[in-house]
């Protein structure tokens, strides 16, 4: 049988009713009759389960009671008793200290004193857990640490904080870092446990190979662009080469030009156009061929993670391929 002081449980039903019927300013939050009746039924079941030693089920019901009737201080105090009977001393201590402050504010001196006395009696028995965060780790961009899924603010880093006995999951995350997690197991009341967050491994986006991969991707893209431009230029050069041949044939047709390059006006104009097209074709073929070759070289020599790279260098004697494969 649960042997804790039953006074708070006797007063809790009165507190639930008061939360429902208290007039205007005395009521902090309006509670519907349905919520109040449901809370009262859950409260009665929970206290019976506490007397039978079924604290896990009882505490779950009392948590729901405090959600349905937030101003029910008696239910909050009974929840602290339930946590204490269940062995969750840190949770019980937190409930007692909260009720102590709220009851004092509400003018309930007796209840405040009772809650304060119970909290003081538990405090020396509390287990604590400290999450140490080295300065190097604190400097990580976006560093976030949680304990049992609840964020730990910077003010809590390195602080000895009360915890219930059992397993607690510590998780650390930071931008571009792999998450780190550890289960910290508190085995006994009064135990002081400390967990240090280690250096977090890079997740790959900032690893040395990643910069090579990014640079390699940019170089391959540049190679494709330059090679494509060279291929297009060479294609236009071929077009002008064909035009030069066509114009030359036109100048020789119908006797417009004779041996010794003696031409009439029609032949002379066709010869001029053939020479101009030939010049353009030569320039475009040379430039396009060089660009195509350079683009292919850039694409093939682009660095990849884990593979030494090569690069194109411009020297006094032209383009040079440097590096290893």
Provide a brief overview of the structure.
The chain is α+β, with helices and mostly antiparallel strands and 325 residues long. The protein has helices at residues 7-21, 33-51, 55-68, 73-86, 89-105, 109-122, 135-138, 208-252, 265-300, and strands at residues 127-132, 144-147, 150-151, 160-163, 166-173, 180-186, 192-196, 257-258, 262-263, 310-315, 318-323.
Please tell me the total number of domains: 3
Rg over CA atoms: 42 Å
Fold-level CATH name of the largest domain: Serine Threonine Protein Phosphatase 5, Tetratricopeptide repeat
Treating each run of at least 4 consecutive H or I residues as one helix, how many helices?
A: 9
Order of helices and strands: HHHHHHEHEEEEEEHEEHEE
Shape: rod-shaped
Terminal Cα span = 79 Å
The CATH H-level superfamily of the largest domain is Tetratricopeptide repeat domain
CATH architecture of the largest domain: Alpha Horseshoe
How do the strands of the widest beta sheet line up side by side?
3-2-5-6
Which stretches are low in confidence, meaning pLDDT under 50 for 5 or more residues running? 1-8, 17-27
How many beta-strand runs?
11
Structure class: alpha+beta
Give the DSSP E fraction (strand runs of 2 or more residues): 15-25%
> What oligomeric state best describes the polypeptide chains here?
single chain
Biggest sheet architecture: 4 strands, antiparallel
């Amino acid at each position: 049988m649960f042997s804790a002081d039953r006074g708070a449980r006797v007063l809790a039903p009165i507190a639930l009713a008061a939360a429902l019927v208290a007039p205007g300013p005395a009521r902090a939050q309006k509670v519907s009759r349905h919520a109040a009746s449901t809370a009262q039924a859950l409260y009665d079941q929970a206290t019976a389960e506490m007397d039978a030693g079924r604290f896990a089920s009882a505490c779950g019901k009392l948590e729901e009671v405090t959600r349905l009737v937030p101003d029910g201080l008696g239910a909050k105090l009974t929840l602290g008793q339930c946590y204490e009977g269940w062995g969750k001393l840190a949770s019980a201590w937190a409930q007692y200290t909260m009720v102590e402050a709220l009851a004092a504010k509400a003018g309930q001196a007796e209840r405040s004193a009772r809650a304060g006395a119970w909290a003081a009696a538990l405090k020396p028995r509390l287990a604590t857990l400290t999450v140490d965060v080295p300065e190097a780790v604190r400097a990580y961009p976006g560093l976030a640490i949680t304990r049992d899924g609840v964020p730990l603010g910077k003010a809590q880093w390195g602080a000895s904080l009360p915890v219930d006995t059992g397993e607690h999951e510590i998780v650390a995350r930071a931008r571009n870092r792999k998450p780190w997690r550890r289960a910290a197991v508190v085995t006994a009341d009064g135990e002081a446990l400390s967990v240090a967050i280690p250096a977090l491994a890079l997740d790959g986006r900032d690893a040395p190979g990643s910069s090579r991969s990014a640079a390699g991707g940019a170089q391959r893209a540049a190679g494709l662009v330059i090679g494509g431009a060279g291929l297009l230029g060479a294609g236009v050069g071929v077009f002008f080469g064909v035009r030069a041949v066509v114009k030359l044939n036109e100048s020789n047709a119908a006797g417009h030009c004779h041996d010794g390059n003696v031409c009439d006006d029609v032949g002379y104009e066709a010869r001029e156009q053939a020479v101009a097209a030939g010049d353009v074709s030569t320039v475009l073929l040379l430039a396009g061929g060089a660009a195509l070759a350079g683009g292919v070289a850039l694409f093939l020599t682009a660095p990849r993670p884990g593979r030494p790279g090569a690069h194109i260098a411009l020297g006094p004697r032209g383009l040079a391929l440097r590096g290893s494969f």
